[in-house]
Design goal:
Distance between the termini of chain B: 80 Å
Number of domains of chain A: 6
CATH topology of the largest domain in chain A: BirA Bifunctional Protein, domain 2
Helix content of chain A: 25-40%
CATH class of the largest domain in chain B: Alpha Beta
CATH class of the largest domain in chain A: Alpha Beta
CATH architecture of the largest domain in chain A: 2-Layer Sandwich
CATH topology of the largest domain in chain B: BirA Bifunctional Protein, domain 2
Bound molecules: zinc ion
Shape of chain A: elongated
Strand order of the largest sheet of chain B: 1-4-5-9-8-7-6
CATH superfamily of the largest domain in chain B: Bira Bifunctional Protein, Domain 2
Oligomer: heterodimer
CATH architecture of the largest domain in chain B: 2-Layer Sandwich
Largest sheet of chain A: 7 strands, mixed
Structural class of chain B: alpha+beta
Chain lengths: ~800, ~350
């Protein structure tokens, strides 16, 4: 909310306060001042134009002025012609900086000295008007401009949605005064006197069809209007807060909204044919040409103000063009109404229209404000336009606001804040904010919030009022906790449990990445990963309209980016979630999805089949190491197929009997889809089964007797896998064979076509004695015999 | 001069010139080996009176050879050590060649640092779903449908009935944690991803990370909240950090605050980083609203609590001087390598 400091301090009745102090006070009372712009006009002087000549030489139209500044005359060149002889204008002399930030210097413009600047309203930050020089209607040459137009400061104040009562100068002035230890002089409810006959109720009638939507409607009739420009002070205040003056009647409705926070609207009474005001739901097919020139299609989800049955305004949003006040209007119906916030918010969102009225009404302002606003506007109409206001305003108020007292013992406030606030101080604070406090029997307090405060209903709310005005800086910092005889043992978070896994992968040369969960549906579809994808109803863009179902595309995108920025080979991993539509759900999901946590690993930039094969085993080894860091368990790998992966270089990863993921070289089309040169290997597996593994480690005693090792090179058909051979070797090797690890896989000229040689390192050891070569060799012979028989294996030396 | 002496003299001069240990070993074998040049005298061929002199001459020659071999070996060793500076000199200014190690992502590092401080304060770290129901994300937190406060958090919806949302904050974890733990005391920290339907730029992301902390116990006060936030901030930054509470509004806390920490750059005097007022916005907090406690099945007459939360990226930005939030999620290696 944009606030004029000058307006604010006048209402607050505080003169001895700088804008900076006011900003600081408001901020610490809960009204964060996001921006403070000073408009210091004391350095600008009033000048009178003595002469005005067109510049003879300039190509651009320029005018050379002689300006009387009281004690001297100066020649000043300007681009606008609107300051004529006799005009009073603001003059900035060389060396001054005008409020918009321009520093004025002596200049020579095409041969003419310019010893100052004639200022526009925009240059003085008095409005957005930058065409033409500002013309003053009073002042003496040489006077500081601030004697005519008071200096001001503009504060951009953040008003939280629970406090629509402070979307106005009066509300914030009350807060400022209270925080500075004073009570607002200004009474909330203005008096109104001097109404004329006939009574307004004879001129219009009001009937509300749906009292749930319209909480109050006041319609005051005002006669003898002369529509014209507003006086300077009023225009200036509106301009200061960014509202363009239109005409006195409209300006007054805007002014009161900015002062009291009550939206108002003025209808030209002569254009209301029926003079029967109603509020109802709009009907299908109805439309209204609005004040902003737009013709809006309406429907049953919108509410309209009607005259007779004819819509004349969108309730709580904007008036209709055909009943608007214009030049020549002599009689108006002044509307001060209150509508249900949720409905106004709904209309505002559906029609994509936010107005000064809707932003206030959607937050549920008090219906009591309607009367205050109407009275204030009536007073100003009399004062400013010389209009006459009729007595007896027509009104509908089907659900008068009920007082909501809060009862509590004042110690409760101390207990919430953690600080003792003296009772008299507490009472004074509440009084300054407009609360009524009554001490009842046994020390209980009866506190009645002011009518404009609908947000205070509990002792916690009252504690907040006391706390923020008393000052949270005064609350001592303490730590919670008390004596306990029971507690819960702390357990490490899932993320922390996964840290050894992360460390192991980093140690193996993989960089951790964190990638967005929102991805493009189209990408998932191309990769065939969209089966259980969840799409947003209201995405920001096509490239992040869906929750990812796999980490793989995210990792590939990172590799793509890194490649673009010069890294040829990326080694990446991520631990993150995928989001899979609940199995029972259709396209329109109803249930929360599965959010499995996954580990994804990717290694790119491998040239040729051999390099990729090596990379596969590196990645597999890294993965096994990472899993081993979590639990001393072994993963199993079985040949598998997956459309994203190379058909001959892919394995399913199993933990126990459960398939938990996939590892392999990526299919050429997969890496090509991301523009990656070379080959890539990747793996993805689920974390949850790993976290369930038994992570206890029991150390084995170190062996007391030496091991005997033998290498065994087994020549077998190409499609026989090492795991099968190892299984056979282990089962035949018996207890003495403590390890059988494949360390080489050779295909080439040394072995027959169609066969390969797999070399195993066998370790034999007994816990009880030193083995002899003879017994190891005989065991080895048995192994060879089995392999020959089962796999037609031959052996190399 | 005896033959022995002559052989020894010849050997000694060769030994003295031997360039390395291998040559010495060759000479030793040549002269002193089992079939070497220097052999004991054949006493059977000698007169008895010559035997003693011959034996002594042989021993003398043998010992002198052994001594000069040892001496030369020692000399060579000493010379080699003295020579190391020149013979094995390397250029120590050439770049190091580290083993190929990867790195943890900066957000992981910062999140863990935050969790560590929380855990030190006795908070249990909890995680929960990112696709939330309307009830957990809004209703249970005192944000009824149609309420204007919902505009504070632009929301992604996953179905047309708007019952499933991407959580807009970690606060639904307050409810989940209360329901899970039951009877207080509850001290929990809840990190995780959150989502806002907002256009992305250097200081806004549609998805980012928050940490929420919740304490529910007997007699929790605003002072306890202040102390906790201060303890945390000083642990995360340094002991000089001061914390300021500005009254604010969140529907799920009452009273509510924004908390600022004294500027890390200027220490509070005011500079460009803090916009001149000496304070940096750090997060939001407040006393858990009684309605929220009730939705978590906790009796607000017996217990009170506080909750506070902040963005993890924001902490990382301040800590490392990162000026564009998007860098955290792009994973450009030129960025990652700086941590
Ligand atoms: Zn600073």
């Amino acid at each position: 909310m944009r606030v004029s400091f000058q307006w604010l301090s006048e209402l607050a009745g505080i003169e001895d306060l700088t804008p900076q102090e006011a900003a600081q006070t408001l901020t610490m009372a809960g009204w964060t001042v996001e921006e403070l712009r000073l408009i210091d006009l004391s350095q600008i002087r009033v000048g009178r134009i003595i002469s005005q000549e067109p510049h003879p030489a300039s190509k651009k139209p320029l005018w050379v002025h002689m300006v009387d500044l009281g004690d001297e005359q100066r020649q000043i060149v300007a681009g606008a012609a609107n300051a004529v002889v006799g005009s009073l204008v603001p003059v900035a002399l060389p060396g001054t900086t005008v409020p918009s930030g321009v520093k004025v210097r002596d200049a020579n413009i095409a041969g003419f000295e310019a010893r100052g600047m004639l200022c526009s309203q925009a240059e003085l930050e008095l409005s957005d008007e930058h065409d033409g020089i500002m013309l003053l209607d009073s002042g003496e040459p040489g006077q500081p401009l601030s004697a005519i137009v008071p200096s001001d400061a503009i504060l951009e104040v953040e008003v939280t949605p629970n406090r629509p009562d402070c979307l106005c100068h009066l509300g914030l002035a009350r807060e400022l005064a209270a925080a500075r230890g004073r009570r607002l002089k200004h009474d909330f409810m203005p008096l109104f006197t001097g109404g004329i006959e006939p009574p307004g109720t004879d001129l219009v009638s009001i009937a509300i069809e749906d009292p749930r939507f319209c909480r109050r409607y006041i319609g005051a009739v005002v006669s003898d209007i002369r529509v014209g420009p507003s006086p300077q002070w009023l225009q200036r205040r509106l301009r200061a807060v960014g509202v363009r003056p239109i005409s006195n009647v409209v300006d007054i409705t805007n002014y009161v909204a900015l002062e009291y926070g009550q939206p108002l609207h003025a209808f030209d009474l002569d254009r209301l044919g029926a003079r029967r005001i109603g509020v109802r739901e709009a009907r299908e097919g109805e439309h209204l040409l609005c004040l902003d020139g737009q013709d809006r299609q309406l429907g049953p989800d919108s509410f309209v103000i009607t005259d007779g049955d004819q819509p004349v305004a969108l309730a709580g949003l904007i008036g209709g063009a055909e009943t608007a006040v214009q030049v020549g209007t002599t009689q108006i119906l002044l509307e001060a109404a209150n509508f249900e916030g949720i409905a106004v918010r709904g209309m505002s969102r559906r029609l994509k229209l936010r107005t000064e009225a809707s932003v206030r009404l959607e937050k549920n302002i008090s219906p009591e404000l309607a009367l205050a606003g109407a009275r204030r506007a009536a007073g100003l109409l009399q004062e400013v336009c010389g209009a006459k206001v009729h007595t007896s305003w027509a009104e509908a108020y089907p659900r008068p606001q009920e007082p909501v007292p809060v009862r509590f013992r004042p110690e409760r406030i101390d207990a919430i804040l953690g600080l003792h606030v003296p009772l008299e101080e507490m009472e004074a604070i509440l009084d300054r904010l407009g609360f009524q406090v009554r001490v009842e029997t046994e020390g209980e307090w009866y506190v009645l919030p002011p009518v404009f405060r609908l947000d205070v209903t509990s002792v916690q709310d009252v504690a907040e009022e006391v706390g923020r005005i008393y000052g949270y800086d005064n609350v001592p910092a303490t730590l919670p906790g008390r004596r306990r005889s029971s507690w819960r043992a702390a357990t490490p978070s899932v993320e922390r449990r996964l840290d050894p896994c992360r460390q192991a992968l980093a140690g193996a040369g993989f960089d951790e990445v964190v990638t967005p969960a929102l991805v493009a549906a189209e990408m998932l579809r191309r990769l065939g990963l969209d089966g259980r994808a969840l799409r947003m109803v209201n995405p920001l863009s096509d490239d992040q309209d869906t929750l990812r179902t796999s980490l793989l595309p995210s990792l590939l995108k990172v590799a793509q980016l890194q490649q673009k920025h010069g890294r040829q080979a990326s080694r990446l991993f991520e631990i993150g979630r995928a989001y899979l539509r609940s199995r029972g759900d259709s396209e329109e999901p109803e249930e929360q999805p599965d959010e499995p946590q996954l580990l994804g690993v990717l290694s790119t930039g491998h040239e040729g089949a051999d390099a990729a094969r090596k990379a596969f085993y590196e990645l597999k080894g890294g993965l096994e190491r990472a899993v081993n860091a979590l639990a001393p368990a072994r993963l199993r790998f079985e040949r598998a197929e997956d459309r994203l992966y190379h058909p001959g270089r892919t394995a399913r990863i199993l933990s126990g009997r459960e398939a938990i993921g996939c590892i392999g070289e990526l299919h050429p089309t997969t890496s090509q889809a991301f523009g990656l040169p070379g080959r890539a290997v990747a793996a993805q597996l689920e974390i949850a089964p790993l976290l369930e593994l038994d992570s206890t480690r029991k150390v084995k005693a170190l062996p007391r007797y030496p091991a005997v090792t033998r290498d065994l090179a087994v020549v077998v058909p190409l499609d026989l896998e090492a795991a099968t051979l190892a299984g056979a070797i282990r089962s035949k090797g018996g207890e003495l064979l403590t390890d059988a690890a494949a360390f080489d896989d050779y295909r080439g000229s040394q072995v027959t076509e169609g066969r390969k040689s797999v070399a195993f390192a066998l370790t034999f050891r007994s816990p009880e004695r030193t083995l002899t070569d003879e017994e190891v060799d005989s065991r080895l012979e048995q192994i060879r015999a089995t392999l020959s028989k089962r796999f037609e294996a031959s052996f190399r030396d | 001069m005896s033959d022995f002496e002559q052989t020894a003299a010849e050997a000694r001069s060769l030994i003295a010139q031997a360039p390395h240990a291998a040559e010495l070993e060759r000479l030793r074998i040549h002269y002193l080996g089992a079939r070497g040049v220097l052999v004991p005298p054949d006493f059977s061929q000698l007169a008895p009176d010559e035997r003693q002199a011959a034996g002594r001459a042989y021993n003398l020659a043998k010992r002198s050879l052994q001594e000069s071999l040892a001496g030369r070996l020692d000399e060579l060793r000493r010379r080699r050590l003295a020579d190391l500076a020149d013979s094995e000199r390397i250029d120590v200014t050439l770049p190091g060649q580290p083993p190929r190690l990867g790195r943890l992502h900066v957000l992981t590092v910062v999140q863990r640092e935050i969790e560590t401080i929380m855990e030190r304060m006795g908070y249990q770290v909890e995680i929960g779903p990112e696709v939330e129901t309307d009830w957990y994300n809004f209703e249970a937190l005192n944000l009824p449908r149609g309420h204007a406060s919902r505009d504070m958090q632009e929301t992604f919806f996953l179905n047309r009935s708007e019952t499933l949302v991407l959580r807009t904050h970690t606060s639904p974890m307050q409810i989940r944690t209360m329901l899970k733990h039951g009877e207080p005391p509850i001290y929990a920290a809840m990190p995780g991803r959150v989502y806002r339907q907002e256009a992305t730029d250097a200081s806004h992301l549609a998805q980012f990370m928050q940490v929420e902390a919740l304490a529910v116990d007997v007699g929790i006060t605003v002072g306890d909240l202040k102390g906790t936030v201060q303890y945390f901030s000083q642990s995360l930054w340094d002991e000089e950090r001061r914390v300021r509470f500005r009254p604010s509004y969140f529907p799920y806390t009452e009273p509510s605050f924004e908390f600022d920490v004294s500027c890390l750059v200027c220490g509070g005097r005011g500079c460009r980083s803090c916009g001149g007022d000496g304070w940096l916005e750090a997060g939001g907090c407040g006393m858990v609203h009684p309605a929220v406690l009730r939705n978590g099945n906790i009796d607000p007459e017996r217990y009170s609590g506080f909750a506070w939360g902040f963005g993890i990226e924001r902490i990382a930005m301040l800590k490392y001087g990162v000026e564009d939030l998007r860098l955290f999620y792009e994973n450009d290696h030129r960025f990652l390598e700086q941590f």
